[in-house]
Amino acid sequence: MLTAPAHMPDLPMWAAIAVTALCIFGALLALVGSIGLKTLKTMYERLHAPTMASTLAMATIVAAMIIYFSFAEGRLTLKPLLIAIFLTVTTPVTMTLLARASIYRDRVEGREGVPKDDM
Amino acid sequence: MTPAAIVYWGTGFAQVVLALSMLVSAWRILIGPRAQDRVLGLDTLYLNAMLLILVHCIRMSLTAYFEAALILAIIGFTSTVALAKFLMRGEVIE
Amino acid sequence: MIARISQRVFQQILPHPILSVALFMVWMLMSSPAGTGHATIALIVALLVPQVMRALEPDRVRVRSPLAIIRLLWRLFLDVLASNWNTARIVLGYRKRTRKAGFVNIQLECSNRYALACLAIIVTSTPGTTWVQYDRYSRVLLLHVLDLRDEDDWKAILHDRYESLLMEIFP
């Protein structure tokens, strides 16, 4: 029989199941993203994989935190939304910069399969 | 099983999955093949570590870890931007 | 006359009202559970930081039609779910033979920089499309698409789904 340590607060059954399901779903989605980072063939295809972790996986885990701490502290806790806002704003910056860095390097080296800089 | 036990062991499983995901992205940092792949792997590693800390927050039922996750997100963003900038401006060809 | 003067005073105190409101909300979230003291500091920050922004002289943000914002958010929510599902299936080996990835050039119509920033967030946060490069003079956007199908017209997709709504929001 699995038991919980004493620091865990009491919360309703549906909330416990929702928190657990959201956490596990987010973790599995992040794992799929990392597997994509491992298995996809080119650099530009690999760029798509981690965005799964930074959008839906992050959103489900943040939702789980909001549900859990709202019950644990007995009031609506929206603090985890900060992480969601921050990641939503910063992910485009990192991804675009990485894509541009790699396309720049590919162009300088004259590799195949990269569009020319004719803009 | 009590609701607290479900949350405790379920988040424990999620932590194992996230640690596995960190391992896979660390593998990408190791094998490369080029510098931008390693930077992308590092970005993913930071992201997964942040998610791991968030789940740890729930498991320990402590909001104190939340700031750690926020700082990790900020450091990950800054380091990835700096490295991408370096790839564009620093040494051009390996 | 009085209306114009009061408008001037309002612009002096609150040069960027949306920024002030956003700063106040984020500060309150950051320091929750927030008491009166936190609210005071949040108010000071929300009043002072936009004055600093005045030195940078960004374009004024004008937002219209809240209905369009809600429609955009709802559509984005559905698309994030759908594209995550599609990307996860591709990663796990579905249609490995026939799928091909590639670059797409798209001629955009809107030139408002806030609309473009929102479009960049939308494009990046739906896995399967990545914003690579945008040229401000020719307004050509270079996208990388993970699952490139021949029958899809990406310009029409991007325009019908998001760009028209964004042009409604940021006139």
From TrEMBL, chain A:
InterPro entries: PhaG_MnhG_YufB. Keywords: Membrane, Transmembrane, Transmembrane helix. The keyword Metal-binding does not apply. The chain crosses the membrane at residues 12-37, 49-69, 81-99. It comes from the Bacteria. The keyword Membrane applies. Coiled coil: none annotated. NCBIfam families: CPA3_mnhG_phaG. This is Na+/H+ antiporter subunit G. It comes from Brevundimonas terrae.
Automatic annotation (TrEMBL), chain B:
Keywords: Antiport, Cell membrane, Ion transport, Membrane, Transmembrane, Transmembrane helix, Transport. The keyword Protease does not apply. The keyword Ion transport applies. The chain crosses the membrane at residues 6-27, 39-62, 68-88. It is found in: Cell membrane. NCBIfam families: PRK06161.1. This is K+/H+ antiporter subunit F. It comes from Brevundimonas terrae. The lineage of its organism: Bacteria, Pseudomonadati, Pseudomonadota, Alphaproteobacteria, Caulobacterales.
Automatic annotation (TrEMBL), chain C:
InterPro entries: Cation_antiport_E. It comes from the Bacteria. It is found in: Cell membrane. Keywords: Cell membrane, Membrane, Transmembrane, Transmembrane helix. It is a multi-pass membrane protein. The chain crosses the membrane at residues 12-30, 36-56. The keyword Ribonucleoprotein does not apply. Belongs to the CPA3 antiporters (TC 2.A.63) subunit E family. PANTHER family: NA(+)/H(+) ANTIPORTER SUBUNIT E1, NA(+)_H(+) ANTIPORTER SUBUNIT E1. This is Na+/H+ antiporter subunit E.
